[in-house]
Amino acid sequence: xxxxxxxxxxxxxxxxxxxxxxxxxxxxxxxxxxxxxxxxxxxxxxxxxxxxxxxxxxxxxxxxxxxxxxxxxxxxxxxxxxxxxxxxxxxxxxxxxxxxxxxxxxxxxxxxxxxxxxxxxxxxxxxxxxxxxxxxxxxxxxxxxxxxxxxxxxxxxxxxxxxxxxxxxxxxxxxxxxxxxxxxxxxxxxxxxxxxxxxxxxxxxxxxxxxxxxxxxxxxxxxxxxxxxxxxxxxxxxxxxxxxxxxxxxxxxxxxxxxxxxxxxx
Length: 266
Known about the structure:
Layout: H1 3-13, H2 19-30, H3 40-53, H4 59-63, E1 65-68, E2 71-74, H5 84-93, E3 100-104, H6 110-118, E4 123-128, H7 131-143, E5 150-154, E6 165-170, H8 185-190, H9 204-212, E7 217-226, H10 232-241, E8 245-251, E9 257-263
Helix pairs in contact: 1-2, 2-3
């Protein structure tokens, strides 16, 4: 039995439904020469990755990257694994006019950098409370040649932010504490808890963002956030209560509420 077939069998026995695809990815990642017979070092590296996968370490962590929107981003356990759902947020932001963008809780930088890459005249600031996450974002900015247009800062929401922005965007921690136990082990065990949950009802970070956005959002500017599927009404009401108008709720590819946008007119 070849190492690949044996690995597929082990993953399937452990309940991994996409075992064959995952094995192909990990095999390709460890083979020095895809056209030659694998050497002992490559096989050992492959088997080590399979052992890590059996602990539910995400594929993106094993590969060191995740493809998101139009680019490949470096990811590790210090940042959220970018998800296709969040591409809905990027698409909605690109549907409004902006030249200056602020990304609150930037993590890997996948939102901010995707926006800047798609708008060659735009500049932006990405802030995060995690210095380790900012290190990852800096690596992604460098590999995308966006260092000159993306500023990364250590900040607790708006605490280290200055200036005005046409767009404020965020994918904040929105999972309620009592929902954490329902998450897949890949998420529970290997992604940063502070980026997943607010330690409360899942809405407290939106309250902070909406309460603090006023001095930083230009007139006619937009604020856009990713939400959990049940949070549209609550977040929309927060936007209304904090003076935003023209709210709209956008669904993701699974037809679940995923993004709320509001505009500042005064």
